[in-house]
Amino acid sequence: MFEALEKLGYGISLSLEPSNLLYAAIGSVLGTLVGVLPGLGPVTTIAVLLPLTYHAGSPLGAIIMLASIYYGAMYGGSTTSILLKVPGEAASVITCIDGYQMAKKGRAGPALAIAAIGSFIAGTVAVCALALVGPLFAKFAVTFGPPEYFALALFGLSLSATLSGGSPVRGITMVLVGLLLGLVGIDTITGVERYTFNIMAITDGIDLVPMLMGLFGVAEILHNLEDKSRGSLLSTKIGRLFPSRQDWSESAGPIARGSVIGFFVGLIPGGGAILASLMSYTLEKKLSKTPEQFGHGAIAGVAGPESANNSAATASFIPLLTLGLPGNAVTAVLFAGLLIQNVQPGPLMLVKNPDVFWGVIASMYVGNIMLLVLNLPLVGLWVQLLRVPSWLLSATILLIAIFGTYSLRSNFADVTTLMLFGGIGYLLRKASLDAGPLIMAFILANILDTALRQSMLMGDGSLMIVLQRPLSLIILLVATLILVAQLWSYFGRVRVRPLPSET
Amino acid sequence: MNRPLATARLTTPTYVAVLMLLVLALTFGLGAFRLGFWVDDAPGPGVLPLAVSIALLVLLVLVVREPLPADERAFALAPAAAILATIVYAIVVPYTGFVIATLALLIVWIRGFYRQSLLRAVVASVGLTASGLVIFPLLLKVPMQLGPAW
Amino acid sequence: MDMKSQIVGALGILAAAMLPQAAAADYPDKPITLIVPWAAGGSTDQTARVLAKAAEASLGQTIVVINQPGASTSIGMAALAKAAPDGYTIGTLSSTSYLAALQGRQLPFDPINAFSYISYYGDNLIGIAVKADARWNTIDDLIAEGKAKPGAIKYGTAGVGTTQHLTSEALQFATKAKFVHVPQQGSAASVPALLGGHVDFIMETSVWAPFIESKEVRLLAVTTPQRSKMYPDVPSLSEKGLKSLRSVQAIIAPAGLPEDVRMKLETAFRKAMSDKAFQDTMDRLGMVPLDLPGAEVKKLVEGEYASAREILQEIGKAK
After folding, report:
1. Which residues are in the DUF112 domain (chain A) (predicted)?
2. Is any Cβ of chain C less than 8 angstroms from the Cβ of B69?
């Protein structure tokens, strides 16, 4: 344990070298800038910059810069989620829910500040945990086989419906819709195309980013057209910029719990950050004394998920560096960046390139500090964005959504997806059907279906394997408990209601 | 409590949405039969879609039987027109390239939906499109088709 | 091969014939776009980028690499097939592209004849890997148990219909061994499936390489035509008289590319193969460089296409 801290100290000293600090600074600024642009901002930027890193002085410097872009982009993504309801990635969907409501109530400042500070604290916790116990958990990721992923997907689904502010029936409906949409595309097990209608753009499934930006960003500006009398997005004046004492006390617990949840969930490759945010949000809603405020601008609903999200992103470096398992498109490009520098992520990385391993971990920390320093003063500036007249702001969002979507893979079909989901999102919104549960289920659908059938192949056609493995059994039991509790509280309420009048 | 699906209410957003989701559930549910339920000694690709579609049908019935949310409002004209504009944009942009289509959409958006002066709409659209082009094709090196396709 | 794609191919050639050939003299006079039909960061993306960088030197123009992933490369390949055959849009070819066509995928282009072939640059190294503590010491042990206990051994590959999967089907057909295929979502996912004991072996591209070095994984066989110089002790399937498919990596362009332009590109790309950075990248990925002229690439691809069709017919999955 002592040894680990010593190595982390060594890593910090490496990352504090002036040239490396410079790389971190450049990366953070670039990342924050492109993160504000939705779509594949960070992936595109990192891919464009990859050839540059080939000529960078040292492997560490190059990786530090790429990692800073990654973190910066995540910060930038939260900013647009809160201010404009434009989530750049799936994990930010949850930030949209309460963050955007806070912004509309003139509390964008505290929301942005708590997101930045929560992320920073979570980053600190995760980096320390990573240094202390990270290598121990390297093997944890591989214990997750299809039965465990199946149980995990069920668990995630049982939480998804609670994201809905409206009636539980509508929440569950949207979960089912998300599941169906998520099943579009080539089936992993048989290679058969499902519901693609021979449209090439959806052979691999409906693309998440155009769908996200349609259901949230475009649907929101369409909805705003109903009320053009307002000159800007705000319904009230902009309040204080920084969180009040009460905001702090409401956020402290969520940040702490979010950091811990995020770390452990982030160790599981694939879907880590999204599940972490989702779990944190549900947990905070359950623990809150005022759960009815969730969905209407509860600061705990921003603080918890944002912390969990950042902590998970940090923890996901464990499977990346020790197993060579990239969890998402951005870490896949980072992975390539390491390879270009002749650093092979994998079991021997700790032995062969300890300087890069510890340097990267330490640089995440340095990057986090840098982002905090960079972003807190920017809060005031970002908030002014809300004063931009709505005719100009909505046109800007429309333009960025279109160009950002197209930049994914230079395909016009993605622009069509964006616009279709914009219209659908508007209709759903009018009908009080929330897009949040839909997105969660959409992401989990493929994991659920593939893992279920992989498990059955492993178990010679029987699903007993899910119950026979301790880890999957435990997750499954928890998921069942949550489901039962939810059904109970819903149907229980319906049945119990007439009783008071009788007594 | 139960509100019947009266014809007068068919344009209520909840019912329109339910109708759309009904089509979705039926498409996926019926499509599942063509995908197969048992392939190579394992459950086939149709199992989950069928199960979820049936569940969705049940839930849609529950949604219709539920009282409408208190804040449910009728559709407005402007968003419907805007949806049409964005769909038209998506259809024509592969033929016109980004410059013409985007300028047109933004001018329609600012002038038509926000009733700003034509001069303002044109100036803002040109400015926005130009900055978009500087960021994406120029700085991020995204290959974009700017002019009309031949 | 349907009628429509043949007509499209023929039209492409016709269109090319009508193009002024003189333009080639000052080719290239503007940047060239290279379509990689895979996501950024994958093995094709990495190798194509360094190769393109090296080819820039002799072409005197920049080569802009763009990623157009999706639908097992079909999206990027369709874009390439549709591009003008003027030498300013080129792309990479992987076996995945034509394998998709054999398995009933509706493609808006002919998987072989919609393209001009510029050069080959290598094979992905595919191997059969087991955990270090597995009870099989050789490929023969594994096959023997597959025959004795049909269906007891589970294996993973990057997915249904990939080169990896078809080669393992061919192996089972030839040896009468029976393994259960548990498809994974991409090559990267196969390694944890093996390490966690969720499958017994994997037939995969060199994603296992770092774990061989850490002695967590053993390699039983490779599928390249010869043994790999990185693993000289590991037999190739062809030594055992078994069929295997190649994991092709080549540079191509839309059909109807003027011959002098094609030749300029071929010269540049074949010369680029001696670049140090390219060779390092290939080594690191365990890929086997192979230098072939364009005409032979087409023959090789046609041969692979025919063998893949044969395998699919044997296992009754041809469409």
Report:
1. 21-439
2. no
C64 contacts chain B (CB < 8 A): yes
- Chain-chain contact of A226 with B128 (C-beta, under 8 angstroms): no
* A211 contacts A177 by C-beta, under 8 angstroms: no
CA distance linking residue C218 with residue C241, whole number of Å: 22
The verdict on residue A229 lying in a domain is yes
User: Does residue B114 sit within a domain?
Assistant: yes
Residue of chain B with shortest Cα separation from C35: B143
Phi, psi of C252 (to 5 degrees): -135, 175
Secondary structure percentages of chain B, helix, strand, coil, to 5: 70, 5, 30
Q: Which two tokens stand for residue C263?
A: 């030749």
Q: Do A180 and B106 touch (CB under 8 A)?
A: no
- Which of A204, A458, A460 is the closest to C198 by Cβ? A458
Q: Tell me which chain C residue has its CA closest to the CA of residue A204.
A: C71
Q: Supply the DSSP string of C275-304, one letter for each residue.
A: -HHHHHHHHHTT-EEEEEEHHHHHHHHHHH
C102 and C134 part of one domain:
no
Ordered per-residue pLDDT tens for chain A, 503 residues: 567 777 778 888 888 888 888 888 888 888 887 777 765 556 666 666 666 666 666 778 888 888 888 888 878 888 888 998 888 777 788 999 999 999 988 899 999 999 999 999 998 899 888 888 777 777 777 888 999 999 999 999 988 877 877 788 899 999 999 999 999 998 888 888 899 898 888 888 998 888 988 999 899 999 989 876 566 666 667 778 889 999 999 999 999 999 999 998 888 876 678 889 999 999 999 898 888 889 899 999 999 999 998 898 888 888 888 887 777 767 777 787 787 777 778 878 877 888 888 888 888 888 888 888 888 888 888 888 888 888 999 999 999 889 988 887 788 999 999 999 999 999 999 999 999 999 999 989 988 999 999 999 998 888 899 999 999 999 999 888 888 877 777 666 554 444 444 33
- CA–CA separation, A374 vs A368, rounded Å? 10
Residues B58 and B83 in one domain: no
Kindly list the partner chains of chain B, i.e. chains with 3 or more CB atom pairs below 8 Å.
A, C
Same domain, B46 and B86: no
Q: Do A336 and C213 touch (CB under 8 A)?
A: no
Count interface pairs B-C at CB distance under 8 A. 4
Tell me the residue range of the domain where C284 lies.
3-124+247-314
Residue B141 with chain C: CB contacts under 8 Å? 64
Instruction: Please give the structure tokens belonging to residue A89.
Output: 């990635």
Q: Which of C217, C240, C263 is the last residue before a domain boundary? A: C240
CATH number at residue C196: 3.40.190.10
Residue C319 lies inside a defined structural domain of this protein = no
Clarify whether residues C139 and C99 are in a common domain: no
Do C119 and C203 lie in one domain? The reply is no
Chains that touch A (3 or more CB pairs under 8 A): B, C
C140 in the same domain as C97: no
Task: Name the residue of chain C whose CA is nearest to B149's CA.
Answer: C83
| B150 located within any domain | no
Which chain A residue has the Cα nearest residue C153? A458
**For residue B112, what are the domain limits?**
77-139
Which residues of C are less than 8 Å from B143 in CB distance? 33, 64, 66
Residue pair A53/A66 in contact (Cβ under 8 Å)? The answer is: yes
